[in-house]
Give the backbone structure.
Amino acid sequence: MKNLSLVVLTLGIATYFTSCKEVKQEIAEKQKEALPNIVFIISDDQAWTDYGFMGHEHIETPNLDKLANESLTFSRGYVPTSLCAPSLASMITGVYPRNHMVLGNDRVLPGDDKKGKPAWTLPWRASNYVPVVENFKKLNTLPKMLKKKGYLSFQTGKWWLGNYSNGGFDYGMTHGDPDRGGRHGDYGLEIGRKGMDTLYNYIDLALEKKKPFFMWYAPFLPHSPHNPPDSLLQKYLPKAPTEYVAKYWAMCEWFDITCGELMDYIDKKGQTENTIFVYVCDNGWVQNENDGAYNPISKQAPYDYGLRTPIMYKWKGKIAPGMDTLSLTSSLDMVPTVLDLLGLESSEELDGINILDETERNNREAVFGEIYNHDFNTIVEGLKYRMVMTNPYKLIVPDPKNRPNEKIQLYNIFKDPFEQVNLVDERPEVVDDLRNKLEASWNPKL
């Protein structure tokens, strides 16, 4: 009897611990399931005006209009710089270009002979960029931070910093090998333009592994080449002043269509209520009417046509939808906002705020920006402009060393959203106040 009791007791203890283990595993699985997926949708070269919900008379963006209606949408969003490589690097790190040091798209050194050609076409471009990539690999990125919560991270679309793994992604489309044409996305640039299957496969993989996922969807849209499907081009040709403009407008709708396909797939998989969507554009674009180039008031410029973007946050049932036309927000807020939603903290200081926190939002006095040469080397040699945006004023300060013939500009963005009337002589007290704010915020790694 004693032996029998011992066997029963042993079995009971084993059953108890097995049950406890199973319960813990079940709880862990439920906790994983409860973590929301995160999707960054990033437009490429699109003006803040060029959406249906932002009031464009001709461009149709029904899917983004729907997203805007279901999100807390900020119409006065900004990126810190109006060029893609530094802008995207800020989105994934949450810090200004002066802190992540991806200042431009290409790096030139003293003595480099460009011979009138763009840096990216020359053989030394890739070797010059190596230190930029190596420095970036040391930085804390959102995918790296999300690993603490068990996330799988996927890269699709544009990515300037070599292989996707350099940003902490687990999987991605961009190999980044310069010997195979790697520069700013390579195979990643096919997403959207050549279908969405790779992205769908990543989502399926995360669901199969029962892990939450972070998706970086930064397609090469509506970026040039402006070669939209003919059906879209024919739709806009009668409405546009020229074919160049019609092509750009059609590209904006093509991008919108792909966004709809992405959101529909997530809904089909039953993940809409468990997914945080964040929308932003990397920098602006104003299409020239008589050629395929952009107007210099947009991309690489300090004006709102280059810097301003709607920014949206959607989490069905968790984030109350609304259109905020007054609050200042920046793409730098994307990382801290997502981290706060997940109860995570960054090990390093971030330059943005949790924009969903009403107190932080209301206490914000300004957001800042900085623009460097497309072909850069150092902050001192490459800085072109610094900007400070407040309610209602915006100050543009050209660098005296690199832009010696340009003057400071001040605009009342509320009354003059297209920056036509320079108020610098009329409001010197505002200029002084904003310059003080700008200098107080300036802490570059020289």
Remarks:
- The mean pLDDT is 92.
- The two ends are 81 Å apart (CA to CA).
